Automatic annotation (TrEMBL):
The keyword Transport belongs to this UniProt entry's keyword annotation: yes
Role played: Ferredoxins are iron-sulfur proteins that transfer electrons in a wide variety of metabolic reactions.
Transmembrane parts of this sequence: none
Organism: Vigna radiata var. radiata (Mung bean)
Gene from which this protein is expressed: LOC106769577
Keyword Chloroplast: yes
Protein name: Ferredoxin
Amino acid sequence: MALPLLPTPIIPLPKQQQSFPSNIRRRATTVSAELQTAVVRTGGIDYQFPSVDAPTHKVTVHDRQRGIVHEFVVPEDQYILHTAESQNITLPFACRHGCCTSCAVRIKSGQIRQPEALGISAELKEKGYALLCVGFPTSDVEVETQDEDEVYWLQFGRYFARGPVERDDYALELAMADE
């Protein structure tokens, strides 16, 4: 006898961020349809019901910054970061939209599908980098978190011939004095 699936709550946005333009709301609906989930709003909280038929995969995340290894199961139609959070696993993130490199990982084994990962180039994807916030596991996968600055440098470093930009506190003080 199969146990009923419990809904996974989606964390509501703070009040100042709840008024999105209609085109963004439509995009969210499209993403939910692609993920094969039903989203029901009750009492100001969204509940996400995953597809019953979606295959699941074991995801192992080596968190370099914290020295922790997380292992959890993710349905193929769910984002890795969202599933980790629903299981009280804390992983690095910032934008949640695939536009930055805060949740970047290097794939050690397995595969991740990430059609919305705008924060990393096709070249880095080919080298095994992925973003957990918009990544779907397509097999059992083992990944290692990366330092956001390292990934940013790999992606954009060739455009800065002299190396990383160093902070100039004196210039910052001068700029602040003008305001």
